[in-house]
Amino acid sequence: MAETINVLIVGVGGQGIVAASNVLANAALAAGCDVKQSEVHGMAQRGGAVSSHVRFGTAVHSPVIPLGEAQFLLSFEKLETLRWLDYLADDAMVIVNDYRIDPITVAGGKAEYPADIESRLASSGYGTLLIDGMKKAEAAGNFKSVNMVLLGVLAARLDLPIDTWKSAISRRFSGETFAVNWRAFELGRAAGLNAEP
Amino acid sequence: MKRLFSGNEAVARGAFEAGVQVAAAYPGTPSTEILENIAQYPQIYAEWSVNEKVAFEVAYGAAVAGKRALAAMKHVGVNVASDALMTAAYAGVNAGMVLVSADDPGMHSSQNEQDNRYFARFAQIPMLEPSSSAEAKAFAKLAFEISEAFDTPIMLRMTTRICHGRGVVELEEPQPVRTRPYVKDPQKYVMMPANARVRRTVLLERMRRLAEYSETTPLNRVEEGDAEIGIITAGVSYTYAREVFPNASFLKLGMTNPLPMRKIAEFISRHRQVYVIEELEPFMEEQIKAAGLNVRGTDLQSTAGELSPDVLRRRFFGTVPKKAAGNDLPARPPVMCAGCPHRAVFSVLRKHRAVVSSDIGCYTLGALQPLNAIDSVLCMGASIGMAQGYARVLEPDRPVVAVLGDSTFIHAGIPALVNAVYNRVKMTVVILDNRITAMTGHQENPASGKTLQGEQVPVFDFEAVARAVGAAYVRTVDPIETEALERAIGEAIACDGVSVIIASRPCALVDRHQYTGVMMIDKDTCSECRLCLRIGCPAMSLRDGSVVINPDLCFGCSLCSQICPKESIHRTRVNVEG
Ligand code: SF4
Ligand code: SF4
User: Fold this and answer.
1) Sheet holding B427-433, edge to edge
2) Rounded to the nearest whole angstrom, what is the distance from the C-alpha of residue B365 to the centroid of ligand 1?
3) pLDDT of residue A41
4) Which of B161, B167, B541 is the closest to A102 by Cβ?
5) Are B26 and B76 in contact (CB under 8 A)?
6) What count of other Cβ atoms lies within 10 Å of the Cβ of residue A190?
7) Where are the beta strands (DSSP E) in B406-447?
8) Whole-angstrom Cα distance, residue B554 to residue B338?
9) What is the longest distance spanned by two Cα atoms in chain B?
10) d(CA B162, CA B103)
11) What is the ipTM of this complex?
12) Ligand 2 in contact with B349 (CB < 6 A)?
């Protein structure tokens, strides 16, 4: 693998973003890549905006992705997608969970949740996949495995062998939880393979 | 075997491979996972100490007694431990002792940005700064060797991106545990003036020898590149600089106290222009310039905030990255969780027009909209101390209240409470006892009745402590029973002396099933007064002008229904899965 692949994973604290980026990073490691991953813990976990950077390739230096260099944006919440567009490379692909969580500013009526997210994404020029992650996760057995659904969609667009994903997911979950998460991942991957752009 | 480790996991692994036997810490982001991971090795005794000073002393005592030991803390924790550190540097160690300082440039979860490299210089101890997880493990091991070879405590300085960044680490076999015999040596370990004067010269001589070591150690290495541009850097800054200047020459420093001045001078002489790239303070730059050498640094960089490849590009090349859609978006600040037991306390305090000094923890978020219930936050324990100052100055009928968590009270609140009683202040202390150190990710403390390694111990008795130190009024209440809480706070504020309220209820995230069902709003009777929104629960929101509760997020704590004047919010049994 010559170039560095940069995946930015974003959403709201509590959505399983860190777990998803760990699985991706471990899959890349199992595929023989050098890997760096970083996210911010702490106060941001309490329902704040969260972002996690995953980079893999022959040799990775910085643990954070430079602006304009992410080839993939995996977003767990619609509004959060817009916050990070500056990080995207020109030919980037955006994978969005079709789910809304109101920031406290919106909840209290102090700000408006943007009504035009989809049209803004469409006019951004990036290839965008809108995924009903919650529904697929429920179909797999638990709405909390939405993070594996989204990873599955991403996996359909990445060049990592399927075994590496399986071993990375089984490293994190065991028994019935693994079964649910693996089903969620497969549902996401099927959606990713069938989707248009 | 190759593994993906965070810097913190890597330090834990390094400590294990180095044969560490005792490790102590007080939790604090970004350092917390170091001890959580060390605790997984049953060979090592690992503890949450009640504060950083105690953690340092426990580790130091173990090292003096003959076993390798480690203490870990966040940057501001070293302030607390510094009293012991400054003198431990004089006395030296026996077996190796490593102090891990996890700094937080950019203040992702801290109240300041202090650069703890100055602590290593201030205390005159050696310091290593890893640039990756792999180095975090390797340097942790080597730190013990250096500590023993030079008979000194040593600092391993990490930053948030190293602590929480993951990278590839190669696992090695642990070294056999060595014990150094303990020899009673009061001239070395009893730091009374006569002995300390002698040790001061030992300290200075040790630093001279360490400076020689710094010149020759492979920790400080040159990566030859373009002769035009040389870059002197360390820690995470090295990775950013490599990203931005792929062709430059690098002097990559792993040991940054003491600095290898001859090596630096030689590197500078071979390059047309040399830059010092470092995060926060001009720690290296000032020393290099003071040695009469010509480098550039702060004239190109700011000393505020975290570095990144983008920041370097902007400062060095003036590249302003494109701005896309994100400017007009609503902010998403952190909030107290749905079902958080602390929220009720703040809504009651607001009613009393109390001046509230707070401490560091989840409840600090009570300062934000819509609760707006906090006047000041400084550092651990300062809530009780500052409130005493407030009480001396503000009008006597103005209620003065200090709020702090269970862990924080034990950490630094007890002496301040004793001071308040002793000096006869009129004030109220509310201990927000959720039985866990929640903000840092739920670590046990004396109020949880469990140690780091899972041993059951008696639960800390706040009431007994408050009574024992002489508080005039002491009550334990369940904060979710708003009426009783309001009554207790009213009585406490009226009381002439120090009153203590223990608002006791487990953290919603630790005990997820303490309530049954979730709340629902009866739209037939709801008048849309929006009073319930004022408690700032993230499960509640306005949708199309009407208040709604998201059943995926609601914990069923009932706080909203207790506030609703129309009695329109009811519990339902429909429990969502999870
Ligand atoms: S983690 Fe616990 S204490 Fe902290 S905000 Fe959430 S519920 Fe409250
Ligand atoms: S009961 Fe009300 S205050 Fe409590 S979590 Fe549910 S919505 Fe929030």
Assistant:
1) B376-377, B355-358, B400-405, B427-433, B498-504, B473-477
2) 10
3) 60
4) B541
5) no
6) 14
7) 427-433
8) 6
9) 82
10) 10
11) 0.92
12) no
Q: Give the integer Cα–Cα distance in Å for B63 and B97.
A: 6
- The 3 state secondary structure assigned to B287-314 is HHHHCCCCCECCCCCCCCCCCCHHHHHH
Q: Which residue, among B211, B207, B220, B217, has the nearest Cα to B267 in the 3D structure?
A: B220
Which two three-digit tokens encode residue B358?
């707070």
- CA B466 – CA B428 distance, rounded (Å): 12
Give the number of other CB atoms < 10 A from CB of residue B275: 23
Please name which ligand lies nearest the alpha carbon of B339: 2
Residues of A in contact with B161 (CB under 8 A): 38, 63-64
- What's the gap in Å between the CA of B164 and the closest CA on chain A? 6
**Residue owning tokens 């009866």:** B522
* String of DSSP letters for B114-134: --THHHHHHHT--EE--SSHH
- SS (HEC) of chain A: CCCCEEEEEEEECCCCHHHHHHHHHHHHHHCCCEEEEEECCHHHHCCCEEEEEEEEECCCCCCCCCCCCEEEEEECCHHHHHHCHHHEEEEEEEEEECCCCCCHHHHCCCCCCCCCHHHHHHHHCCEEEEECHHHHHHHHCCHHHHHHHHHHHHHCCCCCCHHHHHHHHHHHCCHHHHHHHHHHHHHHHHHHHHCCC
A53: its two tokens: 């950077």
Which amino acid, B60? Answer: Y
The DSSP bridge partners found for residue B401 are: B356, B428
What is the average per-residue pLDDT within B384-400?
A: 95
Q: Tens digit of pLDDT for each residue in B135-154?
A: 999 999 999 999 999 999 99
pLDDT-derived band at B577 (thresholds 50, 70, 90) equals very low
B177: tokens are: 């545990």
Residue B326 has pLDDT above 80, yes or no: no
Q: Of A27, A25, A35, whose CA–CA distance to A58 is shortest?
A: A35
CA of B521, nearest ligand number: 2
What are the structure tokens assigned to B425, written together? 């202040």
**Residues A137 and A78: beta-carbon distance below 8 Å:** no
pTM tops 0.90, yes or no: yes
Which residues 120-159 on chain A approach chain B with CB closer than 8 angstroms?
A: 120, 124, 142-144
* CA distances from residue B141 to A72, A136, B156, B205 in whole angstroms, order as listed: 37, 46, 10, 24
Buried b (16+ CB within 10 A) or exposed e, A110-138: ebebbeebeebbeebebebbbbebbebbb
Provide, as residue numbers in chain A, all residues whose Cβ is less than 8 Å from the Cβ of B543. 102
Backbone angles phi, psi at B238, to 5 degrees: -55, -45
Element (DSSP H or E) covering residue B260 = none
Task: Quote the pLDDT of residue A1.
Answer: 44
Mean pLDDT score, B553-558: 92
Is A72:A93 a contact under the CB 8 Å cutoff? yes
Residue matched to tokens 């700032």: B536
CA distances from B213 to B4, B149, B204, B218, B283 (A): 31, 11, 14, 10, 20
Query: Which residues of chain A does B530 touch, with a Cβ-Cβ cutoff of 8 Å?
Result: 109
Nearest Cβ partner for A61 among B161, B242, B336: B242
Strand partners, A65: none
